[in-house]
Structure formats: C-alpha cells, structure tokens
Amino acid sequence: MKKKLMIAGALAALIMSAGAQAHRAWMLPSATTLSGKDSWVTVDAAISNDLFYFEHFPMRTDGITVTQPDGTTGKIENAATGKYRSTFDVHLTQPGTYRIANVSTGIMGSYTLNGKQERLPRGTTKDKLAAAIPAGATNVQTSEMSNRNEIFVTLGAPTTTIFKPTGEGIELVPTTHPNDLVSGEAASFQFLLDGKPAAGLKVTVIPGGIRYRDNLNQMDLTTDKDGKVSVKWPEPGMYWLNASIGGGREGGPGGPGAPGGAQGEKGPQAAPPPPPAAPAGPPVRRAAYITTLEVLAP
Amino acid sequence: MQISHRLILTGVTALGATGAVAVPASAQTLNLSVTIPRLSVAEYHRPYVGIWIEKEGATPRSLAVWYDYDMRNGEGTKWLRDVRQWWRASGRSLTLPADGITGATRAPGEQKIAFTAGKGPLGALGPGNYVLLIEAAREVGGREVLRLPFSWPPKPGAVMKAQGSSELGAVALSFGK
What we know:
The complex is a heterodimer.
Chain A: H1 2-16, E1 24-29, E2 33-34, E3 39-48, E4 57-58, E5 64-67, E6 73-74, E7 77-81, E8 86-92, E9 96-113, E10 116-119, H2 129-132, E11 138-155, E12 170-174, E13 186-193, E14 196-197, E15 202-207, E16 219-222, E17 228-232, E18 237-245, E19 284-295
Chain B: H1 2-22, E1 29-36, E2 48-54, E3 61-66, H2 84-89, E4 102-103, E5 109-116, E6 128-137, E7 143-152, E8 159-163, E9 170-176
Parallel strand pairs in B: 3-4
Antiparallel strand pairs in B: 1-5, 1-9, 2-3, 2-6, 6-7, 8-9
C-alpha cells in the first residue's frame, strides 16, 4: 500500500511538473461530436512531448471523473494503462454534452524547523494546513495548486449544464461551445480563476500533429478584462489548450513563450527560478488548465 | 408560460395565413433533382444525404435526410454526424427518425424529391432569400455539399443548378404549382 502511494506521489509530481519539463498532459477522445441515441467514446490519456503522440508516460486513470449532461456522475469503463498511454471508454447514454475531467488540488510547501528544511507531506489540504505546520516553524512557504485537465464530448445537440463553475482553479466557460468549433470561424471562451474572470491569463493553443511539421504553430493569447479570449482556428483538427498561473508552465510566467521562459520549445530549459524569499503569508496560487478541442472542417 | 406559448403559435398561424393570401391557395412546390454519381470503387455504400434550407437570421430547416434508418437499434444514426454541415445546422436538434424528413438511402442515378410550401418539413416560407443545401457523405468515401440559392416567392420559370465533382452529380431546383 505504501509503495503504491509512493508511486502515485511520484506520478503526481511528474504530472505537476509536466509543463516545466515541456511535457504535455492530454486526453484525446475518439470523437467529440456524436450522433445516435447511444454512443461510445474511447479516450487516450498520456503525458508526452509531441501532440498527440503517446511516447513518454501514461496518464493515470484513477482521478478521472465523468459528468453527464444532466449533471449526474458517469463513469469510465475498460480502463487500461500501458507503457505510454492509458485508454478508457465512456458510454454516452444521454443527449447533450459530457465532461471527462482529471482534477487535482492540494497544497505544497516547506518550512524550516530547528535549522532543517522540511517539506509539507503530500496530500496536504487547505483545512489541514495549519495542523501540518508545527509550532516554531519558520520560513514557511506554501503554494496552493489546482490542476484541471478536461475534455468535452457531445451526443446530439450541445448543452451547457456541465459548465456551471465550481469556483476552484481555472475553469472554462463557453461563449462558443467547445463542441461547436469549425475551422475558419472564431471561437470565444471565458476563463475563470477561482470563480472570477481571469483577466490577463496567458492561454496557449497548439495544433496536434506536431511530429509531421517543423514549426509548433503555437498561438499565444491573453485573456481580456473579462477573462475572454478569441481563437480563430486555422485548420480542422485536434488542438491542445493550456492556461496556467504561477507554475512556470507553458504559457504561464516563466514558461516557454513567456518573458523569462525558455527560448524555443526544445531549446535548453531555463534554470528554475530561485525560491521566493517571501515570509510566511497566504499561499501562492498555482493553477493550470488543459483541454483538447476538436475543430471540424466547415 | 402556457399562455405566451399559445400566443406565439397563434402568431405563426397568422403569418402563415398572410402568406397564403399573398400566394394563392394553389400549393407551391420545390422540385429538387439530385444525381448520385455511380462510382467505381472497391467498397461502395450509398451516401447519407442531408437536404435543408437556410435563411439569414432564421433557424435552418431540414427537408430530408437519407440514411440507413431501419438498422437494428438505430445504428444508422451513428454516422449522421458525418453529414457534418447538415448535422451542425439542423440534424443534431432533430429527433430521429423525423416524420416527413427521414428516408432511405438512394441508389446512384437521378433522384427526384418535391416539397410543398406550407406543408410537411418545408412549412410556410416568408418572402426572402434562401439557400437550399444538399450534402452527401459516403461510408469509406468522401463528402460534398452543394448550395442552391433561391428567392421566395420564386420568379416564374426559375431553375437553380449546381454540379458536384465527387460525391454528388448535377443538382437542380425548380418550382411548380
């Protein structure tokens, strides 16, 4: 049991540091627009360099949840994890839009006690934070992170019930429904951070199929004061969208493409910034959002 | 709620009645000819075809969809999303099979179908500019969409034509009384 937990921890660390290492976590559904009364999607889930090729590490499936169009919880089926990817199925039995999500939250941090630096145990949550820091600890540094990786699939006409924000982390609210995207058209999405419009959020959009071209063709966008971005899709296909704050991830401060970030996608990585010498205070907010969007031909 | 709903219905009926006055009671028809090309391919399946009309500012209206509607467990509907422009414009908001719209796939050759104004899937047409679209998608094959713009009421003797290049042949729209 303990061993299993350690592996889980190691994997979680890998996922969390994914952006900083230029690895990208993603879920790729077999289809996003489906017809019929009843249908299935198969999803590949992996952490890789190139999109969307499984060539590095599988994504764990234990944290993946399904929200059905009526708001009730669905389930993943036939989950299997291989060397490079995980795969699972979702049975679509209701008309409307489903969310398939991998959401994690937690607090990371360290403190100094008796001249020795200690790390907060993994799995520390907000309500347990006070208890996790012993009396006499100094130089307490914490960061609160919320990671959300989610995809949407629609049986029949798109619906919006599942987009009710939870108020935690970065969330996408459709202006354009994410299952109603067509190349040549502009789509608009609103991003929320902890339930409020995320103004000035850096959003990165990269088309799949990286292996067969020289340029990344990355679109670097910034949300306006209402947390909105507009994306014009240059061609049909699957796109990876990433937005983050505070973590040095792709698109975020310190990440590639951002000021102070690594130059070039596969160029030498910038040295990690030195830990801030901040006094104990409110946790640094770290949040990341990833989705995979399918853009259809007109 | 119920009351306002009825009011809207009454409004529609009133508009329809006005239309019937402007265009005398003799039914006007849209006569459509769609040629499905004969293809020399290893594996041939008849195409799924969506036919609908669009008018700026109005909800697109499905006139016909030809697919394998009689497959067990409605399995033919699984591939309707491949008629992708029709699916987005209208198909995805229909309940299938749709009365007066759903039909069987058609064989290669010239296929004729007529729609009557004020009745069935075409319904009442207000005056204005419309586009009739025909989209064909074939299993293990390609997909093509053709557009036939027309104005309503039609000019006497008007015929709109288009020529497909892959999944559709010649299409023509004429008008009758």
